[in-house]
Design brief:
1 helix; single chain; about 325 residues; mainly beta; Neuraminidase; four-stranded antiparallel sheet; globular; 25 strands
Amino acid sequence: MATAWRNAVPVGVAVVGALVIGAGVDTVHRHPWSHKKAATAAKPTATTKHSEKPRFVVGVRRDGDAIVVRDVRTGHDVGLPVAAPAGRRFQRIAAGPGDSYVVASYASRKVVFHRLTLGKDGRPSALADIPRAAVPGVSTPSSDMAVTPDGANIAYVTYRSGGAGSVDVISTRTGARKTWTAKSAARISSLSWAGDTLSFLWSPQPRAGAHGELVAAAAPQVRTLDTAGPVGDLKLSKAILKLPAGAQAAVLSPDGRTIVAGLESSSRVALQQYSTETGRPGRVLWEQPGKSGVRRLDADSSGGHLLLSGDDGRLYGPDERTPVNAGDLSDVAW
């Protein structure tokens, strides 16, 4: 099985320019999540209703020069590509409210954000800058982003030399920014929101031992951060769940009661529910035999529909099975 670091990167992102998506995308059936009373730690701002299954995948081209929209039923592009601003490259994309998306672009140690809206036919509008919203720092292929369902806040991960990361939360209305910084090297991935609570997967990296030997990394943890609380050290976040070996991605449900983890082994890939209150495993929502692997797991803006990016270069989503070519995309959302 490949290392956690490699598998955690989004489908198609190249690590030293090496990874490429396969030629097709298969889609499979998933189960929407339950929306019972929220856990107190999650503090949701409103009840989220499940939307219809997304019709379109919106993706960043591998070289970051454009955004493209594709119909998941036909595999065809919809409208014209949306070009990146001059001198910048797109890096990340995340679903926003309604038919909108937030896109991050990067240049000269600065991340800025843009809004893209789709028409009813999926055709993209012109890119609109989000005023005053920016994050200083180094954005890498390992960076991650998530947007609150109401579009009010963006969470973004940057990294420093040595692999230690920072989590910034930016208001899309005012540009106000809060920062939490880690002191040790770890992959910070699978960002997702439940109210003011930001969930992420903390995956420590292997370290050198006393005699120069490589010491295996600790098991990945799902941690939550109260973004309405004090800023500073990322240790202010709370570990809520240790995931088993083979866990490569995890998403918090909108009510804060459930984590869905993408698990892989030598014989299967599965989406497994866990309780955030007890840490106990619940239902297996979906599984597939084989070695397709897990690179990323994302939800749409309703939180009710999951998109799994596999090591096999395919995207697994709703139950239509029309092949979609995603080989030129480095990050996707729906």
